[in-house]
Amino acid sequence: MSAKSNRLLSIDAFRAITMLLMIFVNDVSGVHDIPAWIEHVRGDEDGLGFADIVFPTFLFIVGLSIPYAIGHRIQQQQSFIKIETHIILRSLALIVMGFFHVNLESYSSAALLPYAVWEILITLAFFLIWLDYPVSLSKTLRYMFSGGGIILLVLMAYLYKGGDPDHPHGMQQSWGGILGIIGWAYLVSATVYLLIRGRFMWLTAALLLFLAINLGTHGDWVPFYLPVIGDASSVTLIMGGAFISALYSRLLQQQRINAVWAYLSLSGIGAIVLGFLVRPYTGGISKIGSTPAWVLICGGIAILVFELFIFLVDVKGKFHWFRIIKPAGTSTLTCYLMPYLLYAVFTLTHFHYPHWFNAGTGGIIRSFAVAFLLIILVGFLEKKKLRLKI
């Protein structure tokens, strides 16, 4: 294992698997007669399904990358303003995409454009604005394409109509969408990391503070609402990832390799145990409620799984096991957006899977196949230099 690289292959592999599973659980939600443990637990239930673990794991992985991405910029002695501008622009991109995605949920049949067409056009706009344009492309063309994407996105916002046909409304902010949640939480977490300059003791204190806010909010011990941070559930998960990543790097730098397993195992198991201990007093285990038990148990599971990836990839050098899904770890945002295009095309072409792919084992196989094929497609696009970068 080496601490010299600014990128850990174990994080890439972990991110790739998590994105594969994110596409899978989103697709399998439309499959009937599958085991209940695969799906999300209902919002009014105290419990945890497999699908409830995927999103918090992704938030945790966002945090794992912060000490390497932001820390590298700090080591390069980039100014605070330059790094913070980078953080804000990344966050803004996610927030904007999340805002458009969440408005898909209330899209009206009375709108000028069909749902699927609007969905395709906003996704096309995302690509035009945030495509990782090759250096060889002139600045003029880059600005033209990006500007065209912005104009298209503004036009789609203008043409949007949501709600009931008798009571239509324009675009509205609600829960923010998956990307929006990531964007706001990343903004807070990365900014905090930058402010404390990655100092480990301050990072530990920040993690404990955000966890305390999450506990206090759901235990009714915090009698006020914090703008942007909210109940701090997403921020806690990202900061937890940053803490574990910083701890891992710290142990490597100290050449305390054997201590990695003890510290990570204790952290993961400790988080899970603490989650069950606070469960009766803070609203149970609920993804919809973003309760502390959900945060701690999912965070603990993510730590233990990351430990496994460290062993497989960083120690044993088995990254090639994950090579087929590597694009999901390196072009993650592109992978996330591909299902939106796929389902929109299905709607426009009136495509339907054969009935045996809509239920039971056949449906589960279908969802895994969709996830793998989309990632392979993204890999092809990546080779053609067509990927989003924020």
What can you see in these coordinates?
- This protein has about 400 residues and is mainly α.
- The chain is built from 13 helices and 2 strands.
- It has helices at about 10-30, 50-75, 80-105, 115-130, 140-160, 175-195, 200-220, 235-255, 255-280, 290-315, 325-330, 330-350, 360-385; strands spanning about 160-165, 165-170.
- Strands 1-2 form a two-stranded antiparallel sheet.
- A hairpin with a 2-residue loop joins strand 1 (about 160-165) and strand 2.
- Helix 1 (about 10-30) runs antiparallel to helix 2 (about 50-75), helix 1 packs parallel to helix 12 (about 330-350) and helix 4 (about 115-130) packs antiparallel against helix 12.
- The radius of gyration is 21 Å and the shape is globular.
- The model is unreliable at about 1-5 (pLDDT under 50).
